[in-house]
Amino acid sequence: MVDKNEKATSAVLVIGLGRFGSSLASTLDRLGRDVLAVERDPELVQKWSGRIPLIEADATNPEALEQLGARDFEVAVVGVGTALEGSVLITGNLVDLGTPQIWAKAISAEHGRILQRIGAHHVVYPEFDAGERVAHLVSGKMLDYIEFEDDFTIVKMRPPREVQGFTVGESRITRRYGITVIGVKPPGQPFVYATDETRIDPADLLIVCGDTTLLERFAARP
Predict the structure, then answer these.
(1) What is the pLDDT of residues 27-73, one digit of tens each?
(2) Which domain holds residue 181?
(3) How far is CA 134 from CA 12, 70, 131, 146, 153, in A?
(4) Which of 1, 15, 166, 210 could make an S-S bridge to 179, C-beta 3.0–4.6 Å?
């Protein structure tokens, strides 16, 4: 548990141990981050007790948050999603405590807008994001897919046939497709940052970035 007499600058408070919250808390704990989970369901508390630092408490009650030292955390994650009222109350309580970074799970766009209006700094949509990511992976040559803001995306993919056997410069990928090859990973060899002289072979993996729509078109090529 975090010492309440010190500001928990590197610690994360995770509220709610459903699938999202428990995965987040256990991963943070495994990575060596200080984490404290809060859950009011006795069955979930029993399930996770001894596996991660955990307190049984009702985070919709501001006094309970005060007592467990929530004010000392720089980062808090509200993993409660399906109980809309509880999600909003907990987020509002953290806002009132002045938590510098509040991440909150939302299950719909409307839910997310409410969380943002009451003061959540970051709103995440785990189900939607996972579904969108998998859709990109199963629809083409993409092997991994990370989308950032403003439709900027980084993708790991197999090279289309028309660029195989050519260098990045010969393929004119940026000019023809509007995307950038960051690097190439030949099988069994280290990753190398791409230059115009970097050759692309059929078995290579490409790391490319750019506009999401342009990347989707490039990945859809045979």
Answers:
(1) 888 888 899 999 999 999 999 999 999 999 999 999 999 999 999 99
(2) 130-219
(3) 28, 35, 5, 11, 14
(4) 210
